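Lecture 7 notes: from sequence to structure.
We start with the chain below.
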Amino acid sequence: TNWQMFVAQLYDPSITAAINEPQVNNMLTIFPNPTNDQILISFQSPNLIADITLSVNNSLGSTIYSETIKGLSASPPFLKRLQVGSWPKGLYYVVLMENNKRSVQKFVLQ
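Predicted structure tokens for the same chain:
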């Protein structure tokens, strides 16, 4: 409904709620959450993957970090450590794009 789309945009400005994008069937985990200096991003997909795009957006939807990871395979899990302690405190979204499918996880920087 229109109300749900409006609420989704309020809570996650990095995603356009009016478009139904397929979600990635994966295990995307961020820890520790909340954090104050670094995060570890763990991702595993049951599919064979060539490339993924990993980005971090702030609560206003601005991209703070972006990286393309090439030649990823289904196993073992991909791990990425990010130093985030110098970023402004707040809510962030890790966005993972795989074959035009999106997966999003939130984390809080204290």
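Points to note: Residues 13 and 73 are 30 Å apart (CA to CA). Confidence is low (pLDDT under 50) at residues 1-11, 13-22.
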